Amino acid sequence: MKTVYHKADTRGHANHGWLNSYHTFSFAGYQNPERMSFGALRVLNDDTVSQGMGFGTHPHRDMEIISIPLEGDLEHKDSMGTTAVIRKGEIQVMSAGTGVQHSEYNKNKDEEVKFLQIWVFPREVGVEPRYDQISITDGAKENGFQQILSPNKNDAGVWIHQDAWFNLAKFTKGNGKNYMLNKKGNGVYAFVLKGSAKIGDRVLGERDGLGIWDTQSFNIEATEDIEILLMEVPMELPAYLK
């Protein structure tokens, strides 16, 4: 098993006043040639948006974009005609494909929005843009894995144009479980939302990340009550990026 460890305080940081953002991988003004991506996982931004502020209309193409709210409400509008509000307990996906424009705003006057913005390279370019949003509250599991994203339209969670599987896991202190990878050649980027856990010989704290590959499985053990996001993605980049 191979690993790469990213301690929370080594992430890129940009505070624009209205937006406080931490970048696990190179993004915008933060450029680190050693942290361009983890396989097909291109962006993992930990964003806080101030009251009444947000991202104005801007374009995307040929990227799978996933948003997971942690606190507050985020309003989404796009050129496909979608108007929606995503909240904690939900997940949103937008396949940018041939091109889409969207905006994201915190319309609340008394509450910040905290959310994860995640980008995954699709397996192919030029797909038809699409939007989806679902609640993941009902499927939450204590001391187990909850699949929230996959490549399969009829599987649990949202789906994207990539051989990727995302799971949320919540474990109480002293509990844990073995994670089995879904596809040979994939790796998993584990990102701690709350608490701490041990994976292999590494103890991870809040907002630490650990990339894991060249293995079929690994064990997670909660050293404190923990909430962790597991993002399984292909380690080989799509052919169009080579």
From TrEMBL:
<feature type="binding site">
    <location>
        <position position="104"/>
    </location>
    <ligand>
        <name>Fe cation</name>
    </ligand>
</feature>
<keyword id="KW-0479">Metal-binding</keyword>
<comment type="similarity">
    <text>Belongs to the pirin family.</text>
</comment>
<dbReference type="GO" id="GO:0046872">
    <property type="term" value="F:metal ion binding"/>
</dbReference>
<feature type="binding site">
    <location>
        <position position="102"/>
    </location>
    <ligand>
        <name>Fe cation</name>
    </ligand>
</feature>
<protein>
    <submittedName>
        <fullName>Pirin family protein</fullName>
    </submittedName>
</protein>
<dbReference type="InterPro" id="IPR014710">
    <property type="entry name" value="RmlC-like_jellyroll"/>
</dbReference>
<dbReference type="InterPro" id="IPR012093">
    <property type="entry name" value="Pirin"/>
</dbReference>
<dbReference type="InterPro" id="IPR011051">
    <property type="entry name" value="RmlC_Cupin_sf"/>
</dbReference>
<dbReference type="InterPro" id="IPR003829">
    <property type="entry name" value="Pirin_N_dom"/>
</dbReference>
<feature type="domain" description="Pirin N-terminal">
    <location>
        <begin position="11"/>
        <end position="120"/>
    </location>
</feature>
<feature type="binding site">
    <location>
        <position position="60"/>
    </location>
    <ligand>
        <name>Fe cation</name>
    </ligand>
</feature>
<keyword id="KW-0408">Iron</keyword>
<feature type="domain" description="Quercetin 2,3-dioxygenase C-terminal cupin">
    <location>
        <begin position="148"/>
        <end position="233"/>
    </location>
</feature>
<dbReference type="Pfam" id="PF17954">
    <property type="entry name" value="Pirin_C_2"/>
</dbReference>
<dbReference type="InterPro" id="IPR041602">
    <property type="entry name" value="Quercetinase_C"/>
</dbReference>
<dbReference type="Pfam" id="PF02678">
    <property type="entry name" value="Pirin"/>
</dbReference>
<feature type="binding site">
    <location>
        <position position="58"/>
    </location>
    <ligand>
        <name>Fe cation</name>
    </ligand>
</feature>
